[in-house]
Amino acid sequence: MEPWLAGVIGGVVAVIILALPRRKCPGCGEQFPRIRMPASRRQALWGGWTCSKCGYEVDRHGRRIEGVTPGKPVLKVAVMADGRLTVDGSQATLESLRESLKQLGMRNGEVWYYREAACGEPPPQAMQVVQAVIENRLPIKLSTRSDYSDAVGMDGRAILQ
């Protein structure tokens, strides 16, 4: 194949992906990413997503797949090396995080926690975040990756999910 033709085809595919409307979770309204990462064999073969916020599984048209029970609600918390906080990908303050954790506790959810530069000294906000999670008695999954695709086991080693 000619290199220029491959570039044209790639450009057309990129335009189509960007032009398509993004699907939303029917359970919580969270937008699904434009580029899909299948979470199951069914999703790999037939399309669809699993909502990272509420756990609903939907087909490629955005309709909930019946018979698949949603998992626990998840709050993704990241602490950056400079002390900034993000909650579900958006900038947050300690006060807004505490409110989100309180609401998550009422829904029996869990926290997925990531800290940038985890090998270094943590910023003070990191300890305050962990303390807020403990105060709300929420389960926490520690991750070494910013996309939360792994978990830290009891032995301190990363476990790919």
Task: Determine the strand fraction and express it as a percent band.
Answer: 15-25%
| Mean pLDDT over the full residue set | 84
- Counting helices, strands and paired strands, the structural category is alpha/beta
Please, how many helices?
4
Q: In sequence order, what are the helices and strands, one letter per element?
A: HHEEEEEHEHEEE
- CATH fold naming of the domain at 74-160: Nucleotidyltransferase, domain 5
- Strand order within the widest sheet? 5-4-3-6-7
Overall helicity: 25-40%
Number of strands: 9
End-to-end C-alpha gap? 37 Å
> Using only CA atoms, what is the Rg?
19 Å
CATH architecture of the domain at 74-160: 2-Layer Sandwich
Task: Report the top-level CATH class of the domain at 74-160.
Answer: Alpha Beta
Task: Indicate the overall shape.
Answer: globular
Describe this protein's structure.
There is one protein chain. Strand 1 (49-50) and strand 2 form a beta hairpin. The chain is globular. The relative contact order is 0.10. It is built from four helices and nine strands; from the N terminus they run ααβββββαβαβββ. By secondary structure, it is α/β, with parallel strands linked by helices. It has a five-stranded mixed beta sheet with strand order 5-4-3-6-7, with helices on one face. The chain has helices spanning 3-19, 41-46, 94-106, 124-135, and strands at 49-50, 57-58, 74-79, 85-87, 90-92, 110-115, 140-143, 150-152, 158-160. It has a domain at 74-160: Nucleotidyltransferase, domain 5, CATH 3.30.420.
